[in-house]
């Protein structure tokens, strides 16, 4: 499949950097074929793996284009995530006869480029009416018209999950659970605190750079003086995919000293830089939380 990689050698780096491109029919076909091939390969990394149907694998191998019943969109994002993949099953009722149609939807992020691939087994082909059309450009089925990318609107970090789930009707597969890097630094990853903290309910001496950190969870700053965690250029959302709401709702001060509380994740000597938090609350001594409010 080296020819598939070669066909996007010039255009793909531009899109990853967010630079404008014009895609004619062949350009749309090249980007769509690469997206299909790449998301198929990622299916083998699911836990457990979900092997793409053999007819789809054979079609793209023999014809070097997406199989029938494939729809692909390209969006652009301005969030803090530079590499991300997730997928889920989807189903819908066909308007013509009320039959149930199902398939797979996968979303791949590389730099500023967001690719979404939806497939199904319906015969005849479906007309997919995607929500949020201003957010993306359809590249498959390819058009004889030149498609201009990027679209007019950009996805932010907090809107990536709603975008990915506009079709999916099962919990998304976020890939393998976060594994502790050798240098104890997570970079540009999606961190679900409930998966990261499994056996021991604490975070200690960890660094997070450019990560999306998702709750629901309450982090309790715990430890002797000098073990406070550091927050640099971070953003906080109280609602997933929604507005930040009341910022004070994130802070749970503990008057009269700090003692570990049941249900909290303990945290000390951690550093968060350029991260975004969704549905995460923070507890601790009032002076510690005050420093957090002011970026410290």
Structural class: alpha/beta
Low-confidence stretches: 171-177, 239-245
Q: How many separate domains?
A: 2
- Rounded average pLDDT: 79
Strand percentage lies at 25-35%
What would you note in describing this structure?
- The protein is α/β, with parallel strands linked by helices and 296 residues long.
- The chain folds into 2 domains: 2-164, no CATH class; 185-293, no CATH class.
- The protein contains 7 helices and 18 strands.
- Strands 9, 10, 12, 14, 15, 16 and 18 form a 7-stranded parallel β-sheet that branches.
- Strand 3 and strand 4 form a beta hairpin.
- The radius of gyration is 22 Å and the shape is elongated.
- The N and C termini lie far apart (49 Å).
How would you sum up this structure in a few lines?
The chain contains 7 helices and 18 strands.
Attribute tags:
single chain, 296 residues, alpha/beta, 7-stranded parallel beta sheet, 7 helices, 32% strand, elongated
Layout: helices, strands, pairs:
Layout: H1 2-7, H2 11-16, E1 21-23, H3 25-43, H4 54-63, E2 70-76, E3 83-93, E4 100-110, E5 113-120, E6 136-140, E7 147-149, H5 157-164, E8 185-187, E9 190-192, H6 193-196, E10 202-204, E11 207-209, E12 212-221, E13 230-232, E14 235-237, E15 251-253, E16 265-268, E17 271-273, E18 276-284, H7 286-293
Parallel strand pairs: 8-11, 9-12, 10-16, 11-17, 12-16, 12-18, 13-17, 14-18, 15-18
Antiparallel strand pairs: 1-7, 2-5, 2-6, 3-4, 4-5
């Amino acid at each position: 499949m080296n020819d598939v990689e070669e066909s996007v050698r010039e255009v793909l780096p531009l899109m990853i950097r967010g630079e404008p491109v014009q895609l004619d029919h062949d350009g749309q076909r090249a980007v769509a074929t690469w997206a299909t091939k790449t998301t198929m390969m990622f299916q083998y990394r699911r836990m457990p793996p979900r092997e793409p149907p053999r007819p789809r694998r054979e079609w793209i191998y023999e014809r070097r284009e997406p199989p029938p019943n494939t729809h692909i969109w390209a969006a652009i994002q301005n969030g803090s995530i530079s590499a991300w993949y997730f997928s889920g099953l989807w189903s819908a009722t066909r308007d013509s006869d009320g039959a149930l149609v199902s398939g797979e939807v996968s979303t791949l992020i590389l730099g500023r480029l967001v690719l979404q691939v939806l497939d199904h087994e319906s015969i005849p082909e479906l007309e997919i009416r995607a929500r949020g059309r201003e957010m993306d450009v359809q590249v498959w089925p390819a058009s004889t018209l030149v498609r201009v990318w990027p679209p007019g609107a950009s996805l932010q970090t907090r809107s990536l999950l709603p975008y990915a789930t506009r079709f999916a009707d099962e919990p998304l597969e976020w890939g393998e659970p976060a594994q502790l890097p050798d240098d104890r630094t997570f970079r540009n990853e999606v961190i679900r605190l409930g998966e990261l903290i499994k056996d021991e309910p604490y975070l200690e001496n960890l660094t997070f750079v450019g990560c999306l950190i998702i709750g629901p969870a309450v982090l309790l700053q715990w430890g002797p003086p000098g073990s406070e965690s550091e927050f640099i250029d971070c953003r906080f959302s109280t609602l997933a995919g929604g507005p930040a709401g009341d910022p004070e709702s994130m802070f749970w001060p503990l008057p009269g000293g700090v003692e570990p509380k049941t249900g909290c994740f303990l945290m000390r000597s951690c550093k968060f830089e350029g991260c975004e938090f969704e549905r995460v609350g923070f507890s601790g001594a009032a002076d510690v939380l005050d420093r957090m409010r002011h970026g410290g």
